[in-house]
Write a structure and sequence with these properties.
The structure holds two protein chains of two kinds.
Chain A: E1 2-6, E2 14-21, E3 24-27, E4 30-33, E5 37-42, E6 46-51, E7 54-62, H1 67-72, H2 81-86, H3 88-113, H4 119-132, H5 141-154, E8 165-169, E9 176-179, E10 183-187, H6 188-193, H7 197-212, H8 215-224, H9 226-234, H10 237-244, H11 251-267, H12 273-284, H13 290-297, H14 302-311, H15 325-332, H16 341-351
Parallel strand pairs in A: 8-10
Antiparallel strand pairs in A: 1-2, 1-7, 2-3, 3-4, 5-6, 6-7, 9-10
Helix pairs in contact in A: 3-8, 5-15, 7-11, 7-12, 8-9, 12-14
Chain B: E1 4-6, E2 15-17, H1 21-37, H2 43-56, E3 58-60, E4 63-67, H3 71-101, H4 105-136, E5 138-140, E6 143-147, H5 152-167, H6 173-185, E7 188-190, E8 193-197, H7 205-236, H8 242-276, E9 278-280, E10 283-287, H9 291-307, H10 316-326, E11 328-331, E12 333-335, H11 349-355
Antiparallel strand pairs in B: 1-12, 2-3, 3-4, 4-5, 5-6, 6-7, 7-8, 8-9, 9-10, 10-11
Helix pairs in contact in B: 1-2, 2-3, 3-4, 3-11, 4-5, 5-6, 7-8, 8-9
The chains are: A alpha+beta, B alpha+beta.
């Protein structure tokens, strides 16, 4: 058989005779075992062989080649070795089934896995995150006592459940957030804008529900786990990075947390109407307060939430304030207002 | 032996694309299918299949090119890159909010600045590696290309030049772009031969100035026309009619189309000049795509995607490659017996991984 031979050492073209000799091919003075050969390209015009371990070694035959010889050579890789072996149609079906499974699991898994994650794993992460707030955590004994009392009343932590740690943060944004490991941080901005302690109780009950339902863990798994992996392959790196930067709850999680919060307020005999009132105010706000707008965006429509809390009011229940007015004042006065340029400016403007 | 292989000007072109779209169609269709059912994971294998076809349908001085890269090595390369980038992103993700929460806005902005600096550096590094990877996987007559440089220095050069030209509001971009082109290609080789290029901004400055000046001029002209029409309408006492607003809209649309057009014009000039002044041993190159050619390519790509309801996107790679090869020229000759195998670091698996951080190579 005639063939064009490139030895991979120089670009010289060798027109040579090639002979099949048992289990090997006689190429010039070389005996090449058939097992070392692979078909790198095959079409109507030619067949190209390469040799394992010799980069650039190529033997090119013009078509048609001897069918007997062709039968001794391996098939070229087409779709990929694994898919070639089982066939395109079968492989597509198997892969489609796997893909569907991955999507279903990716959607459902966080809720299933979250309760199985030991709380101790999360605690380190949560403690570290609260530690991140550093000097901005307000450490005031009276406020801490008031906060603990409020927390105990909403969630008595009975039945061996780990207590929830609350931390006040001296940053003037309207937000409260549940962190991993049973940590809840309350930003001073939320305290400043929430005058009624019962409304604050409503917010905290909502965040505590996120903790108890392991929504935080779910969000972590959803963002960092399977969902992130799927997005990774579906798009470019930059967009994925953006996706990684936000941790958020699903709407279903938020709805569930509101339901739990309402139940907790009911059990503790705390009036739900101030919370409803707070949501109504948030709903009315046209968003000059950026932080408040952000808080709204990550939550369901405030108007609907207001209605839900208001509907939970039962006349004749012996409602009592969650903590005394003086205790709540201690909470609101706890933060020393440092690092808070916005608030300082506001105070200065008021003073003028 | 035909030691001297000539690409002299003559009847046949030294570089030819012999592909045919109907031959490529089954490749494109199965690539789309498999990419969908694997939720995107197959795209590395799809890229390798596409290149294997395109390279094998590209004839250079009578012999076909060959793509020897595999989907697997690109996939593993991608995983390696992610293993570096994801912790980097996560670190920023936790550090940035922590700094904001502490009220340390300056530190937070500093971190963000460092983050973008890191991204630009990696972008330059990746471009270098992409070019090196492609050359190392491209065989012609059993010989491949490559580079001895890992590209870390190039990343630094890229960062510096991009930062400097950003400081000049990109006015200095032609100088930066040409030096970066030199910095990249002068490190590349094929067999024992080194690519050589020393382009400068000469002949490109006008095109770049046009990116700034033509839109401004068009804007001024549009303004004058609008004012005149308005004045005319006011003089005749008639109310401005819908046609008047349509004209204004059309004029401003035209102005906003001019900016990308002028940029395209600049890149067309850049690639013509860059190819003209690139050499490899006794081989000289050329590239003759005009701005209009590029525009037809892009509009064709978009039109194809629309007409085929998106499927045509799988043909963009084919069309782009065919475009490049059809406008590409090769002159001079190569001494085959002296074109020996590349001694650049043999792309074994371990390093092929990082090589495969494969974004647009040119």
């Amino acid at each position: 058989m005639r063939a064009v031979y490139y030895d991979g050492v120089t670009a010289d073209r060798h027109d040579i005779d090639v002979g099949l000799d048992g289990e090997s091919l006689q190429v010039g003075t070389d005996r090449v075992p058939l097992a070392e050969l692979a078909v790198t390209d095959e079409d109507k015009e030619r067949l190209v062989l390469s040799r394992a371990g010799s980069a650039g070694w190529r033997l090119i035959f013009e078509q048609p080649i001897d069918p007997e010889f062709r039968a001794r050579l391996p098939h070229p890789t087409r779709y990929g070795s694994w898919i070639d072996r089982i066939g395109l149609a079968k492989a597509s079906l198997v892969l489609a089934a796997v893909a569907a499974g991955v999507l279903v699991i990716g959607y459902a898994a966080p809720a299933i896995i979250a309760p199985l994650v030991p709380e101790s794993w999360e605690r380190n992460l949560g403690t570290a995150m609260v530690g991140d707030f550093g000097d901005n955590a307000c450490r005031n004994p009276a406020a801490s006592r008031a906060l603990a009392a409020m927390s105990r009343r909403i969630d008595p932590a009975t039945g061996g459940r780990a207590p929830i740690t609350m931390t006040l943060i001296d940053v003037g944004i309207f937000n409260a957030a549940a962190l991993p490991g049973g940590q809840i941080v309350i930003f001073d901005g939320a305290l400043r804008d929430t005058k009624n302690p019962d409304a604050m109780a409503g917010i905290l009950a909502h965040e505590m529900a996120h903790v108890r339902r392991r929504h935080v863990t779910q969000a972590l798994i959803r963002e960092l786990g399977i969902g992130a992996l799927i997005r990774l392959f579906a798009g470019d790196v930059g967009a994925n990075a953006q996706q990684l930067v936000s941790l958020s709850y699903t709407r279903a999680n938020e709805y569930e947390a509101d339901g739990d919060a309402i139940a907790a307020l009911g059990r503790a005999r705390i009036d739900p109407r101030p919370t409803a009132e707070l949501f109504r105010e948030l709903d009315k706000e046209d968003g000059p307060d950026f932080a408040a707008a952000e808080f709204l965006n990550s939550h369901p429509a405030s108007g609907d939430r207001a209605k839900r809390f208001a509907a939970a009011y039962r006349p004749g229940t012996g409602y009592s304030p969650v903590i005394s007015a003086s205790d709540y004042k201690a909470m609101r006065d706890a933060c020393p207002l440092k690092h808070d340029a916005e608030r300082e400016k506001e105070e200065a403007e008021k003073g003028r | 032996m035909d030691a001297m292989t000539s690409a002299a000007a003559g009847s046949d072109r030294a570089v030819r694309f012999t592909g045919y779209w109907r031959e490529y169609l089954p490749i494109a269709a199965t690539n789309v299918l498999l990419t969908i059912v694997t939720l995107g994971v197959y795209r590395f294998w799809a890229t390798a299949r596409q290149r294997r076809y395109l390279w094998s349908r590209t004839e250079v001085i009578g012999d076909r090119l060959e793509w020897s890269g595999s989907g697997k090595e690109m996939f593993i390369g991608f995983l390696m890159v992610m293993a570096v980038l994801i912790p980097f992103f996560l670190f920023i993700q936790f550090l940035f909010p922590a700094l904001v929460a502490r009220g340390k806005m300056e530190a937070a902005s500093g971190i963000m600045l460092l983050f973008y600096i890191g991204l630009i550096y990696l972008g330059g590094f990746a471009r270098f590696r992409a070019l090196r990877y492609r050359l190392s996987r491209t065989y012609w007559r059993g010989i491949r290309g490559g580079s001895d440089e890992p590209g870390w220095n190039y990343g630094g050069e890229y960062l510096g030049r991009v930062a400097l030209s950003a400081m000049t509001l990109w006015i200095a971009w032609p100088w930066a772009a040409t030096r970066l082109w030199n910095g990249r290609w002068n490190q590349m080789s094929f067999g024992p031969l080194k690519f050589r290029t020393e382009i400068d901004a000469e002949g490109l400055k006008g095109c770049w100035a046009a990116v700034y000046l033509v839109p401004m001029a068009a804007f001024a002209v549009a303004g004058v026309i609008v004012a005149l029409i308005g004045l005319g309408a006011a003089m005749s006492g008639s109310e401005p009619n819908p046609t008047f607003f349509a004209i204004i809209f059309g004029l401003f649309l035209a102005v906003y189309l001019i900016i990308p057009l002028m940029t395209l014009n600049w890149y067309a000039a850049f690639y013509r000049k860059a190819a003209d002044e690139l050499s490899l041993g006794d081989l000289e190159f050329g590239f003759d795509a005009s701005t209009w050619d590029w525009l037809k390519l892009f509009l064709g790509n978009i039109g194809l995607a629309i007409v085929t309801l998106g499927f045509g996107i799988s043909f963009w790679g084919y069309r782009n490659w065919a475009f490049m090869i059809r406008h590409f020229h090769l002159y001079g000759e190569v001494d085959a017996s002296r074109l020996t195998q590349s001694t650049t670091h043999a792309p074994g698996e371990a390093e092929g991984f990082a090589d495969a951080f494969d974004i647009g190579a040119l």
